[in-house]
Amino acid sequence: MPATTPTSPPDIAKLAPASVVDAAWRAMLYCLHPRVIWLSVLPLLLTMVCLGGLAWWGWTDAVAQIRVWLDTWSLSQTFLDWLDGLGATGFRAVLAPLLLVIVTVPVVVVICLLVVATMMTPAIVKLVAERRFPALQAQHGGTWYGSLALSAGSAVVALLALFVSLPLWFIPPFALVLPPLIWGWLTYRVMAYDTLADHASVKERQQLMRERRSALLAIGIISGYLGAAPAALWALGAFTVILAPLMLVISVWLYTMVFAFSSLWFAHYLLAALQRQRALQAQAVADVRELRPTAEAPQAPAHAPDSTVIDVPVREVQGPPGAMPSLPSTPSRPNTP
User: Fold this and answer.
1) Residue among 273, 275, 276 nearest 20 (CA)
2) pLDDT digits over 20-43, tens only?
3) Which of 24, 57, 213, 242 stands 20 to 30 A from 85 (CA)?
4) Taking CA 125 as the corner, what is the angle to CA 121 and CA 126, rounded to the nearest 5 degrees?
């Protein structure tokens, strides 16, 4: 029976490169996929439902209540009188809806994005794995409660870092560096775990996050800068108060697209890195098997050859009585000259 040869490892040169730039342009192309577009439309529908519910169930009453609070608060009256003296009399009518928008918008945005993020990241990772890495075996090294614990712990650390570094935000260089750095660290911690939760084992995930930390942090920081773009829409002044519902919808859609692009970027980069890591390990195992010496010793033949000589001791043969004992015959020798 012929001996079985071990399966040859995959050709590493033909595998997808684990490059940040390669993963970035692939993520941009995947943003045009119908499934990703549908996932980006979903928060818009949720936002419209939330805004419709607020308008139906008490937007007018909430604005009226805020105006009552402003009228009874002496500090707000002093501020409004000062604005009236400057000629900004119309700001009094806009202040109450503006405060309600300031309170409502973050809540609506956070709720919608949390709901969408819960559904978007697994769907995006599954899409990338099915289309680009169909042969990548899932090891299921992560769990949903592990993701929840990591996200909560990392969020607490990020909020503490933001609070401690808040005085430095008034210095222009630090204001442009610290917030994206903190949010980039948070993004890379959460996104890396969620991306590798299904496909990598615990050991593989830890090794990738340790060896690829610089690249993952760079992706998170760039995503943090991109996430600041939707917030810039609310810096357009009082014009945003008039078009607050429309601006809210646009900002939520931009947040969702940034989140989708970040998820796709992490998915393309980490799944390619995981595939190459497994290929390198398989190649190392194959090299060790080729260099390992054979431990089998040569076996003795099962039967003795036919030329084996067996010595039998000579014994004397007894003759009749009175006969002389016969001498053993000697072999004849050729005559010598």
Assistant:
1) 273
2) 999 999 999 999 999 898 888 877
3) 242
4) 115
